[in-house]
Design a protein that fits this description.
Blueprint lengths: L3 H4 L5 H21 L9 H12 L9 E2 H11 L5 H10 L11 E4 L17 E4 L1 H8 L9 E3 L6 E3 L8 H5 L1 E4 L4 E4 L4 H13 L5 H4 L13 E3 L2 H9 L1 E7 L1 E9 L2 E11 L6 H13 L6 E6 L8 E5 L5 H11 L3 E7 L1 E4 L2 E4 L2 H42 L1 H10 L3 H12 L3 H9 L7 H26 L1 H19 L6 E3 L15 E7 L3 E6 L13 E2 L9 E8 L3 E6 L3 E6 L13 E2 L12 E7 L7 E6 L3 E6 L11 E2 L9 E7 L4 E6 L3 E6 L15 E2 L9 E7 L1 H8 L11 H8 L4 E6 L3 E6 L13 E2 L10 E7 L4 E6 L3 E6 L13 E2 L9 E6 L20
Parallel strand pairs: 8-17
Antiparallel strand pairs: 1-3, 2-3, 4-5, 6-7, 8-9, 9-14, 10-11, 11-13, 12-13, 15-16, 18-19, 18-21, 19-24, 20-39, 22-23, 22-25, 23-28, 26-27, 26-29, 27-32, 30-31, 30-33, 31-36, 34-35, 34-37, 35-40, 38-39, 38-41
Length: 858
């Protein structure tokens, strides 16, 4: 017997502490905090799902109490507290925590307000279809290894045979010792597309994979600002992803009370507590750190989230919203740290490595499943071969069994006389007499032939890697068809972020802006060309007190400049403008530009490139005209740039692009038009903060209504033409002259229009009265728009009520200046022409060799 002194082992304290702490750290890392990269689960989640599977809680079975599940997990697999197990179970059932929940919960499972779930004795659960189809299927087919549980009485799977990249699908977060993980959730369909792309091209890069997996897809929706954080996380394993809630600026109407502007939040960033957010905003308002808010209320219900933040009358909603982004969790960062266990070793993984681990794991599970199926098929076929031998010598077998002393003797004699194995002899002794019939013998032979074909096929799968890859693709494609859902999180361009514009199709689009400031973008192809004098089709849902204010056509790669009545210019790429259907009202421009409610957009212009040779011609309501180099507007700040200085009471109304050699045509409401050159003699270039010079003299109550630019190639022809103001040429002369020059298209409010050769508008000095452009059919009619047009062009006309007609320019008659025109568009009573725009020329017409005019190489 040893003494107590002999049992004491002297040990260095630092070494003992280091070893013990390292063992503890590895236990936490492997056994609790970090997920396995193969099935994306931590041990507690894996044990819950497996225990529910063993209990038979599949999607088609009834719900069972969560307390029953927690008890099963604690008693068999997870030797920790019941709170940890129930919390993990609850999270797997929350649709605001998991992108694709794995458990179907029945009862109170908490809320986005951080309300606690009901006690486990009240709630019920069962597995979701995705969990059984994508995580637990084939677990009995020896696809994964099993290990003893904590007391050796049961076995539990080390990993589940996942058919989808579950770790990326639902993400994971955990804090271990000296390390942590934070993986965002993704869209199932995009992940499967990325996995298939990797299988088909193993050399694919991280950035190429981003074409299939553009970024995280959070269960609460929201927006992701910019792609730089996503790119960093996908290529290095770490990155900061900026998340932002979805907030719209709406006009709230109350019965008996005046209208109010309000910010309405309908989606929040991932893991944002709604109740805490509302409390935070209220505290900021009380502390006067955010001003302009009069009331906050939560109008969320079962149909969706709705946080209403009412504005004070003098507040600018866009400014308040920007302050909310800066000071509240409506905008927050997700610190991606893509750490997971690969072979029980923590590794920082990029997006390609994640999918490689998943692919390799699927190859292993399919190989093991095939080996299991092959072994079972061979074992069954081995027994069938023994039965077929016995049936072939049935009399001998019956005689042998009848004269045997006992079962053991019969088995031995069968093995010796027929050359059978012990398993085959047992199968013969257990065979029922009914299987001796001829029909049963045929069935056994057919089953044997079927198993032989199955064995050949299974061996071919094991020998052919391409077949395994095809099986992986087939299985995950089936899961995509069953369980994939549309993306919830929108990825938008971040401020100052450079975007690869080549990834965006450069299509011809129509941009509409209503009087009340609603804007939208639609493909030009939405509107087919129609004949003259038809009614057209609705282009927007227009309310009674609204109407179409501005209407342009351009290409998605163009930059759209918005000029306000205050002489300020704002800039947005065309593809960033909200796309909408033909019957949608659109999105408030206040949400996209930092303009005040009193500020009004008076001109919209599309620019392909900010070149040195181009100028902006600006015309004010009072008739001041100014020419400024386009290059001065190449870098427009987010809060706008001063384009022109205005006299008191004046407004900036029209802006056009021109070159020095071009000339300018300006029309007035009473049907007059003046034509003068844009050269430095008539109109010298001025800086941005200047007022401009007089453009045209007006009589009585006349006012300017439109302006257009005449290209330089025809200015020389017109310069040589002399004509009388009375315009008494014959139609033949007009037609002959029209073949040499473009036309001026004039459209009136009542829907009448005509083409006049531009040579009929002689060049004058600036500040003259001009010449008559059209006579009116009625005293109430007035000129609505003028445009310089060419024979091959098409135009689009929109009315105050949002009706659009698209037609060829040549469908409108050529007439003299003094003619009244023809009916261009039928109008409903009290409707009127609001604006006219030209459809961009196709590439063939511009002779650049491409089919679409917006897709030519710059």
């Amino acid at each position: 017997m040893t003494s107590s002194q002999e049992r004491i082992i002297p040990t260095d304290l630092s070494n003992e502490m280091s070893r013990s702490y390292l063992e503890y750290a590895m236990s936490v890392i492997v056994g609790r905090a970090l997920p396995d990269a193969r099935d994306g689960l931590k041990p507690v989640h894996r044990r819950i799902l497996y225990a529910m599977y063993e209990l038979g809680l599949t999607p088609e079975r009834p719900f069972r109490k969560c307390a029953r599940v927690v008890g099963e997990v604690l008693g068999k697999y997870h030797p920790h507290g019941d709170t940890a197990v129930y919390d993990a179970l609850v999270r797997m059932a929350q649709d605001f925590s998991m992108r694709n929940p794995l458990i179907n919960g029945h009862g109170n499972f908490g809320s986005i307000d951080n309300d606690p779930p009901a006690a486990m004795r009240y709630t019920e659960c069962r597995l979701q279809a995705l969990a059984t189809n994508a995580l637990l299927r084939d677990i009995e087919a020896e696809t994964v290894d099993f290990a003893d549980n904590f007391d050796g009485s049961q076995e539990e799977p080390i990993v589940l045979p996942a058919r989808v990249p579950q770790l990326l699908l639902n993400g994971s977060s955990g804090i271990a010792v000296g390390m942590a993980t934070n993986i965002p959730p993704h869209n199932l369909g995009e992940l499967i597309d990325g996995a298939i792309a990797l299988i088909e091209n193993p050399e694919i890069s991280d950035l190429e994979l981003m074409k299939y997996i553009p970024g995280p897809d959070f269960p609460t929706g929201g927006q992701i600002l910019g792609r730089s954080g996503i790119r960093e996380a996908y290529t290095t394993g770490r990155g900061s992803i900026t998340m932002r809630g979805v907030a719209d600026i709406e006009t709230i109407r109350f019965r008996g009370r005046p209208e109010k502007e309000a910010i309405v939040v309908t989606q929040l960033p991932y893991q944002t507590n709604k109740a805490a957010l509302i409390e935070k905003i209220a505290d900021l308002v009380n502390d006067k750190r955010i001003e302009g808010i009069s009331d906050i209320r939560d109008e969320s219900d079962r149909s969706g989230m709705r946080i209403v933040i009412e504005m004070k009358r003098d507040a600018y909603p866009r400014v308040v919203l920007n302050n909310l982004y800066k000071q509240t969790p409506i905008q927050s960062n997700f610190g991606a740290n893509m750490l997971a266990l690969v072979g029980k070793e923590p590794q920082l993984l990029n997006i390609k490595r994640f999918l490689q681990v998943f692919r390799d794991f699927r190859i292993e599970t399919i190989t093991r499943r095939t080996q299991y199926q092959l072994r079972k098929a061979e074992e069954k076929d081995h027994l069938l071969q023994g039965l077929l031998i016995a049936l072939g010598r049935i009399d001998e077998v019956i005689n042998l069994i009848r004269h045997a002393a006992d079962t053991a003797t019969a088995k031995t004699e069968l093995m010796e006389s027929l050359g059978l194995s012990a398993l085959q002899a047992d199968a013969i002794l257990q065979m029922q007499l009914r299987r001796l019939t001829a029909l049963e013998a045929e069935k056994i032979e057919a089953e044997h032939q079927d198993l032989q074909r199955q064995i050949i096929d299974l061996r071919d799968i094991l020998a052919n890697r391409e077949r395994i890859n095809a099986i992986i693709v087939e299985e995950i494609t089936d899961i995509k068809e069953l369980h994939a859902t549309p993306r919830r999180t929108e990825i938008i361009q971040g401020e100052g972020e450079l975007l690869d514009i080549d990834l965006i199709a450069n299509e011809q689009v129509v941009i509409l802006l209503t009087e009340q400031g609603y804007i939208k973008r639609m493909p030009v192809s939405t509107f087919e060309a129609q004949s003259r004098a038809t009614r057209g089709k609705a282009a927007a849902k227009i309310k009674e007190d609204d109407g179409i204010e501005h209407f342009i056509t351009c290409c998605d790669h163009d930059t759209v400049l918005f000029f306000s009545d205050r002489g300020v210019v704002y800039s947005i790429p065309a593809y960033q403008l909200p796309a909408a259907s033909r019957t949608a009202r659109g999105t408030p421009l206040l949400q996209m530009l930092p303009i005040s409610q009193e500020e009004k957009i008076t001109s919209v212009l599309a620019v392909v490139e900010f070149t040195e040779d181009d100028y902006l011609i600006m015309l004010t309501q009072n008739g001041n005209v100014k020419k400024t180099a386009l290059s001065a507007f190449s870098n427009i700040r987010s809060n706008g740039l001063i384009a022109i200085s205005l006299e008191e009471g004046d407004q900036l109304r029209w802006v056009r692009l021109a070159k020095v050699e071009d000339s300018i045509l300006i029309g007035s409401r009473n049907g007059m038009a003046i034509h003068f050159k844009a050269d430095h003699k008539q109109l010298r270039p001025l800086g941005r903060s200047t007022k401009g010079v007089k453009s045209m003299k007006l009589k009585g109550d006349d006012e300017l209504i439109s302006m257009d630019i005449l290209p330089s190639q025809v200015v020389a022809i017109i310069d040589s033409v002399t004509e009388n103001d009375e315009d008494d040429e014959s139609e033949e002369v007009i037609t002959e002259e029209a073949n040499l020059t473009p036309w001026l298209l004039t459209i009136t409010n009542n829907g009448y229009g005509k083409r006049v050769p531009v040579s009929k508008f002689r060049l004058q000095n600036r500040a003259g009265m001009g010449v008559r452009a059209i006579k009116f059919k009625s005293q109430e009619d007035r000129l609505a728009a003028i445009h310089v047009v060419n024979p091959e062009e098409e135009l689009m006309i929109v009315t105050n009520r949002g009706i659009i007609i698209r037609q060829a320019v040549e469908a409108i008659s050529m007439q003299s200046r003094s003619a009244t025109g023809v009916r261009v568009q039928k109008l409903d009573k009290e409707d009127a022409i609001a604006a006219v725009a030209l459809v961009p020329l196709s590439a063939e017409e511009e002779e650049v060799g491409d089919e679409e005019g917006c897709n030519e190489e710059e």
